[in-house]
Amino acid sequence: MERCANPKISIVIPARNEARNLEVILPELPEVDEVVLVDGHSVDQTVEVARRVLPSIVTLTQTRRGKGNALACGFEAAGGDIVVMFDADGSADPAEIPAFVEALVRGADFAKGTRFLRHGGSDDITALRRAGNAALNGLTNALYHTSFTDLCYGYNAFWRDIVPQLKLPPTTVPALASGGFWGDGFEIETVLNCRVVAAGLKVAEVPSFERTRIFGETNLRTFADGIRILRTIFAEHRRYRARKKSGLSGTGDITAQEIA
Buried-most residue among 2, 30, 167, 183 (CB within 10 A)? Predict the structure, then answer.
């Protein structure tokens, strides 16, 4: 895919029972080439509301469960040159999208949102989650010799042509008996960060301010998902070192079975 100064933009929104929030956030989105909503088997009117508020929206249902699987399905469906990951809970500010696109047009492969640079911040993160994120972020920087400031943040954008290098779990395979593929859940942001670095891609951090969720409660489980992210960091690093030692390029696929 040829990269250009005026790329087509696709916004991918994973959503599960976010009908009330979609009524607020969809009208706020800037005019882009495509908005893709990936429904996580909602039991409310998520899809119906999305189609009513934004008739041009592309909707599909994810093939398994979890935010990671929803995003992978959305990445496959997106037709733009650039993909923007956008949460449905109202925490992401759509006015920041141009800054992500600008970072990519200027040469980055992956534009990584951060709440911990100047002009960034959060009205939502708790002290416990902030401390956990800092510890996990520091560990990742030590293992990968990087200088990320925010590991567990879902507001990111990238050129769609890097998707094959990320080697995310295949979306067409049914869930494993053990529950699913590694990367299907909230650890997806960590998986993406690790694999982008392992693939030698250029990352640019973009300051972002995280707003509070508008309606409903988060599906994030602080301790359970924190442990899952910790396991992801070590698993991805083991895989990276093994493949680097053997002279293989890319990061390979890591499933729940392989690192359970």
Answer: 183
pTM: 0.89
Q: Which residues of 98-114 are buried (b: 16+ CB within 10 A; e: fewer)?
A: ebbbebbbeebbbbbbb
Rounded to whole angstroms, how far apart are CA atoms 50 and 48?
A: 5
Give 245's contacts (C-beta < 8 A, 6+ positions apart). Answer: none
Strands (DSSP E) found in 86-189: 110-114, 121-122, 156-159
Tell me the Cα Rg of the chain.
17
- The rounded distance, in Å, linking the Cα atoms of 137 and 29 is 30
Sign of CA dihedral 112, 140, 226, 259: positive
The token pair that represents 35 in the structure block = 């908005």
pLDDT tens digits, 162-210: 999 999 999 999 887 767 787 888 889 999 999 999 999 999 999 999 9
CB atoms within 10 A of CB 161: 13
pLDDT for 198-217, tens place per residue? 999 999 999 999 999 999 87
Number of CB atoms found within 10 A of residue 136's CB: 18
> Which tens digits make up the pLDDT trace of 236-249?
999 888 877 776 55
